[in-house]
Amino acid sequence: MKATIIPNVRKHYPVLLNEIISIITPRYGGTFIDCTFGQGGYSKKILEYPKTKVIALDRDTDSSKKANEISKKFQDRFLFKNIKFSQLDNLKLQNENVKGVIFDLGYSYTQIKDPKKGLSFETVGELNMKMGINDFSAKEVVNNLEEKELSQIFKYFGDEKDSNRIAHNIVEDRKNREITTEELARIIESSKRKKNLKTHSATKVFQALRIFVNKEISELINGLINAAKIVKKDGVIAVVTFHSLEDKIVKYFFKSLSENKSVSRYMPKDEEKINIFKSLQKKPTIPSEKEIKENPPSRSAKLRYVIKKEDFYDFDTDILEKFDYLIKIENLSDKL
Ligand SMILES: C[S@@+](CC[C@H](N)C(=O)[O-])C[C@H]1O[C@@H](n2cnc3c(N)ncnc32)[C@H](O)[C@@H]1O
Fold this sequence. Notes:
Elements: H1 17-24, E1 30-34, H2 41-47, E2 52-57, H3 64-73, E3 78-81, E4 98-104, H4 109-112, H5 138-144, H6 147-158, H7 163-173, H8 181-191, H9 203-213, H10 216-230, E5 236-241, H11 244-258, E6 277-278, H12 289-294, E7 302-308, H13 319-322, H14 324-330
Parallel strand pairs: 1-2, 1-4, 2-3, 4-5
Antiparallel strand pairs: 5-7, 6-7
Bound molecules: S-adenosylmethionine (SAM).
The site of S-adenosylmethionine (SAM) has 21 residues, from helix 2.
């Protein structure tokens, strides 16, 4: 699994912006849903095209300031909602001509560097990782869940090879003190059997905790399902992912809706499922060398998209069952 983004840049760059614009073609107009508004990089670019309307979402209230600036400029064409993208279906978008739904997953430079959010192992202080609209923090996870449960989170959400040792050492250590960011980074460092020279030892565990605290797996799955329902014929769903777990989910979902597969293997062969979407990509789009040079954190970005080819707004999907093993891990938080 690729490491989480550790930026060594000073501002947020919208990743793969030109590629996104050429895929969603805002010059023809329509409504675009920017599911991850952030600093508004994508929204602002889309609004440069006069016949467009943007509905932008972000779970982080810190995005509202930027959103208010854009609202002043584009009163009739821009709307911001401080909601999670899994709640897309609450927006009642049936009457909108939705031509694009975009997800730029992960977090912006500003968020990662914000000490209050406690996302980075370089931060001093309380373990937080709440990105907005959360029920619990990383501090509660690390200080309360059982050893086996912590180990599962680190293994499945962070692909951490030393998950058992780290979880064991956390549980031993917390008998004496509450685990802070610095303490957690120290425990991980001392638990690792092999040091990776390219990434910090704590990278994977911190990524795993962030995914767990923000329920990023069910957010993504429900966000994708809702996006596929609201986008109109010829509209596009485009997703930029930053690690292999996210990419695996997006790849599976897009493939399952755009490839010919029998509904059931017991059905006659010609009873084939209708493909609601089509994919024009053989491989995901990745940033150019120039972009990576300007914005090194973009190096792990992958862009996948599909185009709706049928006027269908409901469909069957097995994506929830397929990734049920991950949702079960997310649900360990029920006891917090
Ligand atoms: C990488 S940034 C997006 C940057 C944006 N494309 C830009 O150009 O400024 C991702 C944003 O998505 C938001 N986000 C992450 N998960 C979310 C979710 N489930 N629902 C809504 N917003 C989410 C984060 O708070 C963050 O602001």
